[in-house]
Design goal:
The chain is mostly helical and 229 residues long. Helices cover 64% and strands 0% of the residues.
Length: 229
């Protein structure tokens, strides 16, 4: 096998996956083919087919990598949070950071975002697509569990809370990348996102948020530490 970049045995598979993710990032999941990935890497289609028998296998790998990248963006938002003493505020800030990271990934990488939700042989949540073992999904689960632990979300309201929260944040993301919110200014979108999060948490928990707590949580997520109590 002759390649343009001299890949060693074992490296080509990862290179093809990376190329497929790049193709998806630029043009969406339908742009992912074995031949296109091979061309991007600089190898023959025959060499690529030794690692992926068909486009579906390669797209599956690109889907998993897209989810990993989304989880990285979400986790970066969580890791940027300040340390606070109030456990309720900390739990709410964690959940808000997870939501913000999700939306940020959708806006900055719309092709990868769409690829992360390509439906194949898996079923939603339980079959491996955003299953409990999926990093992005687990961040959401952790955030909701923390609300229960600090007494801000009752155990009886915990069931299916992931779907409620996920639907809200995913819907907001789609309105930005494919809907009318894409025409809004960043300031307007941030205001809408903050309002959406407040409504979501109040609806999930049945517990009102004080203006001060809401202000503190948004300051934590937005990195605004001045004049925060």
């Amino acid at each position: 096998m002759t390649t343009k970049r001299g890949y060693h045995h074992g490296d080509l598979r990862n290179a093809l996956i990376a190329a497929a993710a790049d193709l998806a990032g630029k043009s969406g999941p339908h742009a992912v083919t074995v031949r296109a990935a091979a061309r991007a890497v600089g190898v023959t289609p025959t060499a690529a087919y030794r690692h992926f028998e068909n486009h579906e296998q390669l797209l599956r790998a690109a889907t998993l990598q897209s989810r990993d990248r989304m989880a990285e963006t979400m986790l970066a938002q969580v890791n940027a949070l300040p340390e606070v003493e109030d456990p309720v505020r900390a739990a709410l800030s964690y959940l808000a950071a997870v939501a913000r990271g999700y939306i940020q990934f959708a806006v900055s990488e719309p092709g990868l975002f769409r690829t992360a939700f390509v439906v194949n042989e898996d079923t939603l949540v339980d079959g491996g697509k955003f299953s409990p073992d999926d990093s992005a999904y687990q961040l959401l689960v952790n955030g909701l569990n923390r609300l229960v632990e600090v007494g801000h979300l009752s155990p009886e309201h915990r069931a299916f809370a992931e779907i409620t929260a996920w639907s809200s944040v995913h819907g907001f993301s789609m309105l930005v990348i494919e809907g009318p919110l894409g025409e809004w200014s960043q300031e307007m979108r941030d205001m809408a996102m903050n309002q959406m999060f407040g409504i979501l948490v109040r609806g999930l928990t049945g517990t009102p948020l004080s203006d001060q707590l809401t202000s503190n949580v948004l300051a934590d997520v937005n990195g605004e530490r001045d004049n925060v109590q």
